[in-house]
Each structure stands twice: as C-alpha cells, then as structure tokens.
Please model this.
Amino acid sequence: MAASLDDVKNTLDGMSWKYIVKEDKSNVLTGVITDTYLDAEGEKRLSLLIRIVEDGEMLVVAAPFARRAPGLDKVTRLALFEVFNEATRTYKLARASWDPEDGEITANVMIPIEQGSFHSSMLERCIHNLIEFFERYGNRIDEVLNTPTVVVPDEDEILTMTHDEMMERFARYQAELEDGV
Model:
C-alpha cells in the first residue's frame, strides 16, 4: 500500500507539530529543537524536509543545509568524508553527504514502504535518527571544517605481507579448492 504526503501530514498533525507544505505539494518542511546541535545561526534546531517518493514506496527525511561548506580543499574533504564514514557505520539509516557545487552538507534517512503500509513510527524513527546523528556528529563536522586533520595509518598497519607471501597463500588456497578441501 503506497504512502502519501497526507500520511505524513496526519502524523505531524497528531503530534501537534508545526510544518509547511511546499507550494508544489511534494515536500513538507518542519524542524525540531535539539539538545546540543547548533545550526548555522547558532540556534539549537534542525530543519527537516520530508517527502514521499517512488510512487509512495519510499519515505525520505532529510536535514538539508545542516552546514554549508563550499570550496573545500582536499585535506578538509578527506577529513569530512572520514567523519561521514564513521557516522555511517554508527547510524545505519542516516547517510551524510557533501555537494561540491553549493557546499551543502546534509544527511537523510530513506525507509522503503513498498508492500507494507505507512506507520507513524516510521516517520518518528527517521526524525529521531537524524537528530541523534547531528547531536553526535555536528560538533565533529564543525571541527573538521575549522581544523581538518586526517589520520593516515602507518604502512605497517596496512601492509601485512609481501607480494610473494600473498601469491604463495593464494596458490595454496587454489590448490585446496581443487582438492575439495
């Protein structure tokens, strides 16, 4: 059963949550008060964009322009992506991204609805995950943008064997496969 923007609006209405429906009626704009995350104006709030896509089969909740960082140099980009990768391992639902054209740093959560039906807990889970994401990583993102550092592992931590050792192990593995082990 496909979801609609009305499902989102009904959920927000049931929570007495303030929101705005965009003129094209494809997105809902809202926001939430945060405990520690500060937006670009230094306020404890996170702006959210909610939409239903793929003919009602996908719920998307995004925090657009959580930060703006145009023209990042290579070291800062690498440090930022390192934080994003760590965050992605921690928050499986939330995905952070940086747009090099306008410098938008955002995160979003996408939940498939497909054969199921929309439930208010889906929206609540998405919003909660984004809030938690920025509460935990907002300061780290700011640190990276202000003083980027990149941890490059020592070669000894990456390289564990020589090429000859690797080829010998590979040959042994192939032989075991052929022997049925």
